[in-house]
Every structure is written in structure tokens, then in C-alpha cells.
């Protein structure tokens, strides 16, 4: 793309002080077409309007997608928002991944926030350029811009004259960039809400090299890495045998890790197993079982109060009935199918980083700090990612690549062998939730969640202010931190995933105890919450509950059904899971999901996220467990670390609430209720309450 | 050592160590990056290619075994990305991250070549060996059924 921004445009844009000029750092193959393109867009001369939009006289439009793409669909959805307000036909749009740039807000794939936080900016980026084009046309017609309208890249005036965007491109680019422009009414959206295919679909189905692991350039070295057990340090290593291997050039220590550098991936993978590494300070207490016992102990007494109101202890004392259940989950790995990898080229004064990251800015600042190179001399190109789920919110692997490159003074692509990807785990925290309810006059009066969590990544979100806060008169949330050296990190729907599961299961138990339908209980609780100041809207939660009730034929169906609902990542989701008993084994066959994520941008991508989140939750809750012994990850690959597969898969039916509310996120919120809805159906069928993940262990 | 390979109807000679998995020959020697590394132990299916028409794990196939055989990778599944399986994948908008999908399509296309009118259970059995970490299984299943319809038309 560098050739598309010529010197002339650069000067013009600089003079105008327009928001954006992107320096050409395009990863080959990352360009994606909105549809079939009859011409080679690289041959066209594009005029840049802002950081998001370039247009050519042929009518072709390039829209830059600012945020990292991990499979959550923002590379399709974010440009759709720009194209909607710019009002150009989607088939003329080519989407490109933007590099890290100060022109954009929060270039992060995390927390389901890309759409929610960027919606106004993306609209404005399109609308301001549309206004510039209309103004240029109005100037040509010598009429006020208020007498012009534009649609599908054509500007019209009240007399019936027409100009194409392409006709006024150059004149428009000379205009002052307006700060604001009129936005469309949501009823006038044409593109938003449509099913638009993944913009990289053609590249994906033909195997184009669009992922970080595919990156290659002349003179590049290959590296693999050996990771110490959690808490241990590197003592010594003997690389004699490894260095005898053909294609192996160096074996070097990188802190407590050992890197193997060579001429291709296979040789560095093979040689890795020949390095004799000795660790010191191996700690026997870095062990899942030891941590489990600490958690149980922590749950037996009061923990740190996080949130509370009313008189919980008194209410429990005065309750007619008190019920309590504890739910637990082991560590689980992100296990992105594309293993951790990154390309780094560290020179004396500058650094190029290319690869899969959810946090390009953090990657640059981390490497800058470690290498003592100014951050402005570091470029980061984002490739498409073979999954993220939170793992690539950390910068450890990017830094590893940079440190290796700095040490060997050559460009290098580091790829973690799967076993090392597992050893590098920064897992979903191991956690237990002890839930307690006090019932008085057959009404849920007091609610407590006591958490014991083994995590070491500092600040964490706490969902104590979410549902069911406000639904009971007395409420108490406590948390006990179990300190360990086992790395943990954000993992799809962090905290919500297990709090949502535990809450969903526990309310099912409470409803059974009270002899009430669990959906009726939710309604009662949300009635209590109505009118209170809460971070969620009880009314919207009721709407998704009612929608899933209707669609699943809840209470009337002859199927065995379980229900759960949760609010997280600003989105409301209610789910009903149907199961069949195959012998003694309960199998989920269908999941109904009702979702309120505000306005849906791309209905195809949105449904994909709901389907994926639900199947992901069912897969992990049934199968997946990481166990640690003496700091060492026991499940080294997919033979022992089990993931959900095709045979276990129910069919997901997704329904969205019809709303004009601003869009929220969808990469995560359908995850938390899914395993609860499944476990609740299992309880109905078997009488057994599943409390511990993985269910099938 | 020198080995001769026939990949996507083209002949290649590569100089690699004996025992090198076909996966790494494709990726690092022939620059065919569509075949993906996921586990290296034949568990995930991301590296699936066709060897004499059979879906095989290229991470478990050494260069010695691959030599002289007719190998097809995702890049060679069709000339213009228009194999019925590719068309179905596009129509159903299957991929999320997309990393596993080349392997999924290679498994699906070899399966449908042998069984062009599968029932739902047969589709599920056939696709069981391929992990999709994004869990796009609903759409994979649907796309295989749509591809089967296209093939039998």
C-alpha cells in the first residue's frame, strides 16, 4: 500500500492536518476483498481521507480495520460501520488490516469491546468523508451542501443532478476535514444488520499465507523455545547434541528460557528435544492438588469482602432455609490452534515486529522497555490470528522473539512447539465458587458468592456488580486470593465464565428447593432489582429470558431442557439447552440462545460468535483440564488436553432482541450461561448436580 | 538427502533430512503455507492433505512415505477456489479465525469423494478428527452437507 500514498497526498494531508496517514507496512496477503474485485487494486491511485478511508477514481474504496482480528469478526464488522456511514456499496470495498498507529483508539482485541468502544468513531470516520464529498459536489454545483444527498457513492441535488464520489474525490480531499458530520438514523442502515461474509474468506479457503506463523522473509532465522516449570529457574543446559544437528546454528539462554535457532522449523523443533536442560528451584507447592486444598481451606472461612449490602449474616440466621453449593474449575489453557509465534527484526536503533497479537501497543512498549529502544522506532504489523481467547493479550512471546533477534543479531520467527505453547500457558485461573442462599417465606432473600481464586495477573475484573446484584435484599460477595507462581491470564469471558456457570446452576438449585420454575424465579428476582441503580438493566435481561422461553417452548416442550441467563461484557444472554440421554451419558442436542447486544452489525458474524461461544463453553466444561505437578504442565498436547469436537456438538439457534440500543460486544457473553444450561438439563434428567469442571473427568 | 515430490500436479525436488514430516517440507521448503501446524502428533487435523486421494495428517507422514505419491494441499484443491467444498464454506461463512479450515476442507473433500451422499451421523464421524478451537462446528457440519448437495447435482 505504500505506493498508494504518494508524496503529493502526504503533503496535502499534512497541510490539512487530517487525522491520518498510514505508513506502508502491509503484511502480504492481509488485504481482503468485500467481494469480487475486477481490477488489481494495487495498480490504482488512492486518495487518503483519514486513517480509515482511501478512495480511487474507479470508485474502489479501501477501509482500514484498526483492531486485531482473532476470529471474532471485527475485521469485517468495523469496516462495515465505516462503509455504512460513508455510504458506499460493500462490493467496492477492500478491507486492509491497519498497523499499530496513534490514529486509532484502543487497538486491542479484548473484553468484547472493539465494536462498543469504536462504534461512534467508526461512524464519524465514514460520515465526515461523506460530508466532504457532498461539500465538494455542492461547491461544483454552487449550491449549499444542505441541498445535496448521497447514497451508494452517488451524490444528488434537489434538481436531479448527480455526481459520483469518484468525480469529486480530488476536490473533496482538499477540503478541511470536518470534526463532525450528520449520522444516519438506525432505521436507514442498509449494510449494518446484513449477513456479510468474513472479509478474509477467499484467502482462508484457498490457504493463503495470512497468519503470523506463515510470515517469512529473506534471511530470516527460525527459533523454538524451551520454557521452565512455573517458579523454577534455568540452572544449566548442554546443547552439544542439538548443535550437531543439521540446520542448527545456535542454542542460547533467554533469561530462564532456552532458544534454539536454525534454518527451518522442523530442525529447531527436533533439536529442542536434544537440549539437556537442568532447572533449579523446582517448587513442589506449584501443584494443582496443593492449590485445591488451599482453596477448600479458604472457602471454610470469611474472605475479603468485595461488595455487599443489607444484613447478609442476619438474613441467613433468620432464613427458613439455607442452601449452599460449591462449584469448581481447574486451570484451562487458551490453546490457540495457531501456537504462540512472532517475527522480530531487532536492529541497533529500530525494531520490526510482525505477528499475531491482541495488544500491538503493549507489544511495542514492552519490547521498547526491555531493549531500551524508543517506542516510536518500533513498528508492529498485525497478522490474522489463529485464535486468541485472551492468550495474545500477553506480550511474553513477542518479547521472546525480540530478545532472540537482539541476541543473534538477525531477523527471526519464533514458533512454539505445541508442547512449549502448553508449558507457556497463562491459564484461566483455577477457581471455586461457594454459593449460599437464604430463603424466607419461599422468597430468595440473601445471596452470597465466596470465591477462592488462584491467579497471579494482578487486577482482575470482578463481576460482583452484575446480576444477581440487586435481586435480593441482602447480598455479599467475598474473594480469597490463592497466591501461586502459575501464570494466569484473561481467558474468554474472564471471571464471568465460571461465575456465570456457578450462578446459573445455583439458581436452578434454589428454584428447585423453592418448588418454582427457574424462569419464574428469575422474573421475581429481576422485579426486585427493577428501579435500582445497577450496571445492568433488569428489563433487558427479562426480555432475553422471555425470548428464549418462547423460542424454546420452555415448560411445554417434551425435551429435557435446562435454562440459564447471564449479563457480561455489556450484553444480555439467556440460553436453553436440550439434552438426550444416550445410555448413561447426557448429550446436548440443541441450544436456544436469546441475545441483546444492541444493534447487530453483521448478523452472520454475530451468530457465529454466539454459536462458537456456546460450543466452546460446552467443550471446555466437559473435557478440558490443565493439571500442574511441581510447576510442570502435565497435559502437553491434544491427546491429553481434550477439546470439544464435532461429535459432541449441539445445534445452536440464535435469536437477537430487536433494538436500537448502541451495539455492545459478542466475542464472549454467550459463553457464561451455556455450561449451566447444560448442567441444569442434566440435573433434570439424572437428579445429579454437576458442580466440577470438567464434567466428563 | 534429495527427495522428489509431486504436489498439486507439480514436481519438486527437495533437499531435507530423512524423517522430515511432509508438513514442514510443504511449509518451509515449498512455501505452501495453507497446510497448518497445530499439534504435530496427528490429533488436531490442521495439517490434513490428500495423499493419493486419502485424507492424511502431513505431520505424521515422513518425506520418505510422501515421495512418489500424489499429494494435494488446500492450495491445489481447485484451480480457482471453486471446489464445491470451498464454495460451501464460503456460502455458509464457516471460518471464525480460519486457522483450522484448510484442514477441515481437506478432510471434508476426501470424505465426500468417497461418500457423496452422507447422512448427518456420517458427516459428524468424518469430521471428528479435526479440531476447530473457535468451535465453528455447526457451520462446518452444515457446509459439508451443502457441499454434498453441490457434488451430487
UniProtKB/TrEMBL annotation, chain A:
Entry keyword annotation includes Membrane: no
Keywords: Signal
Chain segments annotated as coiled-coil in the UniProt record: none
MF-aspect GO terms: oxidoreductase activity
Gene3D superfamilies for this protein: Aldehyde oxidase/xanthine dehydrogenase, a/b hammerhead, Aldehyde oxidase/xanthine dehydrogenase, molybdopterin binding domain
InterPro entries in alphabetical order: Ald_Oxase/Xan_DH_a/b, AldOxase/xan_DH_MoCoBD1, AldOxase/xan_DH_MoCoBD2, AldOxase/xan_DH_Mopterin-bd_sf, N-heterocyclic_Hydroxylase, OxRdtase_Mopterin-bd_su_IorB, TAT_signal
Signal peptide stretch: 1-28
PROSITE patterns xref list: TAT (PS51318)
Superkingdom of this protein's organism: Bacteria
Stretches assigned to the Aldehyde oxidase/xanthine dehydrogenase a/b hammerhead domain: 206-283
Protein name: Aldehyde oxidase/xanthine dehydrogenase a/b hammerhead domain-containing protein
UniProtKB/TrEMBL annotation, chain B:
Organism superkingdom: Bacteria
Domain named 2Fe-2S ferredoxin-type: residues: 1-77
Coiled-coil portions: none
Signal peptide range: none
GO molecular function: 2 iron, 2 sulfur cluster binding; metal ion binding; oxidoreductase activity
Entry keywords, A to Z: 2Fe-2S, Iron, Iron-sulfur, Metal-binding, Oxidoreductase
Xref: InterPro entries: 2Fe-2S-bd, 2Fe-2S-bd_dom_sf, 2Fe-2S_ferredoxin-like_sf, 2Fe-2S_ferredoxin-type, 2Fe2S_fd_BS, Beta-grasp_dom_sf, Diverse_Oxidoreductases
Name of protein: (2Fe-2S)-binding protein
One Pfam family here: Fer2_2
Amino acid at each position: 500500500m505504500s505506493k498508494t500514498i504518494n508524496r503529493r497526498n502526504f503533503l496535502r494531508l499534512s497541510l490539512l492536518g487530517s487525522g491520518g496517514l498510514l505508513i506502508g507496512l502491509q503484511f502480504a496477503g492481509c488485504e481482503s476483498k468485500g467481494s469480487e474485485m475486477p481490477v488489481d487494486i494495487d495498480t490504482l491511485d488512492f486518495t487518503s481521507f483519514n486513517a480509515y478511508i482511501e478512495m480511487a477514481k474507479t470508485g474502489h474504496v479501501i477501509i482500514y480495520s484498526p483492531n486485531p482480528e482473532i476470529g471474532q469478526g471485527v475485521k469485517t464488522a468495523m469496516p462495515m460501520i465505516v462503509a455504512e456511514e460513508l455510504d458506499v456499496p460493500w462490493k467496492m470495498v477492500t478491507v486492509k488490516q491497519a498497523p499499530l498507529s496513534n490514529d486509532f483508539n484502543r487497538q486491542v482485541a479484548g473484553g468484547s469491546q472493539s465494536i462498543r468502544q469504536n462504534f461512534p468513531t467508526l461512524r464519524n470516520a465514514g460520515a465526515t468523508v461523506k460530508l466532504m464529498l457532498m461539500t465538494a459536489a455542492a461547491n461544483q454545483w454552487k449550491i449549499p451542501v444542505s441541498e445535496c444527498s448521497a447514497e451508494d457513492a452517488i451524490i444528488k441535488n434537489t434538481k436531479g443532478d448527480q455526481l459520483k464520489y469518484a468525480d469529486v474525490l480530488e476536490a473533496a480531499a482538499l477540503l478541511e476535514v470536518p470534526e463532525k458530520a450528520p449520522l444516519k438514523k438506525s432505521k436507514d442502515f442498509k449494510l449494518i444488520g446484513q449477513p456479510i461474509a468474513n472479509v478474509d474468506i477467499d484467502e482462508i479457503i484457498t490457504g493463503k499465507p495470512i497468519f503470523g506463523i506463515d510470515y517469512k522473509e529473506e534471511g530470516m532465522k527460525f527459533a523454538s523455545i524451551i520454557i521452565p516449570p512455573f517458579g523454577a529457574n534455568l540452572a544449566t543446559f548442554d546443547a552439544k547434541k542439538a548443535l550437531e544437528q543439521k540446520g542448527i546454528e545456535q542454542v542460547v539462554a533467554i533469561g530462564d528460557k532456552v532458544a534454539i535457532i536454525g534454518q527451518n522449523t522442523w530442525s529447531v523443533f527436533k533439536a529442542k528435544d536434544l537440549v539437556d536442560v537442568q532447572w533449579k528451584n523446582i517448587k513442589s507447592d506449584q501443584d494443582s492438588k496443593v492449590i485445591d486444598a488451599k482453596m477448600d481451606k479458604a472457602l471454610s472461612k470469611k474472605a475479603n469482602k468485595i461488595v455487599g449490602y443489607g444484613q447478609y449474616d442476619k438474613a441467613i440466621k433468620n432464613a427458613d432455609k439455607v442452601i449452599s453449593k460449591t462449584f469448581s474449575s481447574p486451570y484451562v489453557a487458551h490453546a490457540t490452534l495457531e501456537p504462540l509465534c512472532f517475527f522480530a527484526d531487532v536492529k541497533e536503533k529500530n525494531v520490526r515486529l510482525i505477528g499475531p497479537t491482541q495488544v500491538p501497543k503493549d507489544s511495542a512498549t514492552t519490547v521498547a522497555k526491555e531493549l531500551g529502544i524508543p517506542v516510536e522506532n518500533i513498528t508492529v504489523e498485525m497478522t490474522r490470528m489463529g485464535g486468541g481467547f485472551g492468550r495474545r493479550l500477553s506480550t511474553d512471546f513477542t518479547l521472546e522473539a525480540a530478545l532472540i533477534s537482539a541476541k543473534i543479531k538477525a531477523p527471526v520467527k519464533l514458533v512454539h512447539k505445541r508442547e512449549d505453547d502448553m508449558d507457556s500457558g497463562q491459564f484461566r485461573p483455577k477457581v471455586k465458587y461457594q454459593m449460599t442462599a437464604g430463603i424466607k417465606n419461599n422468597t430468595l432473600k440473601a445471596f452470597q458468592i465466596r470465591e477462592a481464586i488462584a491467579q497471579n495477573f494482578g487486577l482482575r475484573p470482578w463481576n460482583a456488580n452484575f446480576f444477581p446484584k440487586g435481586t435480593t435484599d441482602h447480598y455479599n460477595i467475598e474473594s480469597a486470593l490463592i497466591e501461586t507462581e502459575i501464570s494466569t491470564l484473561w481467558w474468554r469471558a474472564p471471571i464471568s465464565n465460571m461465575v456465570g456457570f456457578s450462578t446459573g446452576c445455583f439458581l436452578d438449585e434454589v428454584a428447585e428447593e423453592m418448588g418454582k420454575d427457574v424462569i419464574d424465579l428469575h422474573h421475581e428476582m429481576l422485579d426486585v432489582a427493577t428501579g435500582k441503580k445497577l450496571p445492568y438493566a433488569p428489563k433487558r435481561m427479562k426480555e432475553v429470558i422471555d425470548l428464549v422461553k418462547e423460542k424454546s417452548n420452555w415448560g411445554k416442550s417434551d425435551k429435557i431442557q435446562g435454562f440459564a441467563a447471564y449479563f457480561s461484557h455489556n450484553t444480555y444472554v439467556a440460553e436453553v439447552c436440550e439434552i438426550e440421554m444416550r445410555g448413561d451419558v447426557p448429550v446436548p442436542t440443541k441450544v436456544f440462545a436469546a441475545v441483546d447486544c444492541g444493534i447487530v452489525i453483521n448478523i452472520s458474524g454475530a451468530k457465529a460468535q454466539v454459536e462458537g461461544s456456546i460450543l466452546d463453553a460446552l467443550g471446555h466444561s466437559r473435557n478440558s483440564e490443565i493439571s500442574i505437578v511441581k510447576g510442570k504442565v502435565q497435559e502437553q498436547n491434544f491427546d491429553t488436553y481434550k477439546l470439544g469436537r464435532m461429535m459432541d456438538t449441539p445445534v445452536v439457534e440464535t435469536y437477537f432482541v430487536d433494538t436500537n440500543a448502541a451495539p455492545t460486544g459478542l466475542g464472549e457473553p454467550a459463553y457464561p450461561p451455556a455450561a449451566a444450561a447444560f448442567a441444569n438439563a442434566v440435573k433434570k434428567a439424572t437428579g445429579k448436580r454437576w458442580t466440577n469442571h470438567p464434567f466428563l473427568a | 538427502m534429495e527427495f522428489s515430490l509431486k504436489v498439486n500436479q507439480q514436481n519438486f525436488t527437495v533437499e531435507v533430512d530423512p524423517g522430515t514430516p511432509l508438513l514442514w517440507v510443504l511449509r518451509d521448503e515449498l512455501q505452501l503455507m495453507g497446510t497448518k501446524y497445530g499439534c504435530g502428533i496427528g490429533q488436531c487435523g490442521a495439517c490434513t492433505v490428500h495423499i493419493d486421494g486419502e485424507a492424511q495428517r502431513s505431520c505424521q507422514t515422513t518425506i520418505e512415505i510422501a515421495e512418489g505419491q500424489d499429494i494435494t494441499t488446500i492450495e491445489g484443491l481447485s484451480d480457482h477456489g471453486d471446489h464445491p467444498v470451498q464454495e460451501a464454506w464460503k456460502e455458509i461463512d464457516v471460518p471464525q479465525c480460519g486457522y483450522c479450515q484448510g484442514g477441515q476442507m481437506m478432510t471434508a473433500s476426501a470424505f465426500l469423494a468417497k461418500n457423496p451422499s452422507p447422512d448427518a451421523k456420517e458427516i459428524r464421524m468424518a469430521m471428528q478428527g479435526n479440531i476447530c478451537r473457535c468451535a465453528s462446528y455447526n457451520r462446518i457440519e452444515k457446509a459439508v452437507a451443502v457441499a454434498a448437495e453441490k457434488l451430487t447435482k
